[in-house]
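The methods section describes the discrete structure representation at length, but only in general terms. An entry of this sort, consisting of the sequence and the corresponding backbone structure tokens, reads as follows:
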Amino acid sequence: MSISIGVVGAGQFAGQFSKLFKLHPQVSRVLVTDLLPERATELNEAQELDGTVTDFAAMLASDVDAIAIFTQRWTHGSLVLEALRAGKHVYSAVPMAITEEEISAIIDAVRETGLTYMMGETSYYNPATVYAREKFADGAFGRVFYAEGDYVHDMDLGFYAAYEYSGGPEWKRTASYPPMLYPTHSIGGVLGAIPTHAVSVSCIGVTDDRGDGVFDRETSMFDNDFSNATALFELAGGGSMRINEMRRVGYPSHIRESRFRFFGTEGSFEQLAEVSVWQNKEGVEDVTALLATAETMDADDAALAHVAPELRASFISGHAPVHDASRLPESFLGAPDGHEGSHHFLADDFVTAVVNGTLPPVNAWVAARFTLPGIVAHQSALQGGVRLPIDDFGDAPETLPA
């Protein structure tokens, strides 16, 4: 069985996934549309895709099996709902949505239609998260009672250009997007490793003082002047999770955008920009090489000397040694990857879930647990850090109706 995919949005990020979808052995066609037709045409020609479609409505009316949404981050919720109601499986870039109502409606639509929904959260496949997930499964942490996730992406390191490209002449209105409404690269890395969810939060927002018109409430379409925010979450079953979303920060986000820490009663894991360590009551183990990808370390780096020969090919191709790259299609070998080796896994998991009728790892229920805590955290910050409860939509069902 093979499926066809319609890519919605042909901006800077979409091309990384349209290429992988086109390479996937179980994808027959890839079409593309964009509000700016010339961008769709350019992407279609550059990657030799299977054609362009005039607009989103025409894509929904077409015979494609699935829709992959790569539009502005605050538009995802409504577009996902339209696609599901039109009978399409959906892959959505992050975040899932920006309101609890949209999240609830998406879950209802998935439950009612039985269609596949997957949020493309890269941190679920982040080498640090994969490593921590394995350590947790082995019981090496003991009880995890505290964890941290940081998304440290400074505006000066790529975000100005990205917003100018996507936002047009009035790009500063959208560049003020509230940090906690884009929480999944941090929350997803923590909750992608330990099976729990947030139940309450207190968040402090930092008012921006750069004075360049970004994060200016008078300019912002979101009425937002927070450029940084820190949230402390209570977790179900006890314990806590601290999340940082930072857009003004002296940190080399071009080396590592997301970083994580986990503390358990028997072991702990900590990560900096270029160093990762496992620790227990006996000592410290440097696991930097195990988690390194071509993005975070030069392929001829001395740390490769510590990587087993049979794992070096995976490292050099963009995956970390901790990744199980053997499960990926051979057609992906040598294809561009990104976000610390996550893109190949994202594309393959979505296609596999649609073809097999199974739930993908970051399904609607998981996506809600990665997204809603940030929405509530932003509300807490607007109220000076008051502690607010976080609703939960429960675990994903084992199967969905056919």
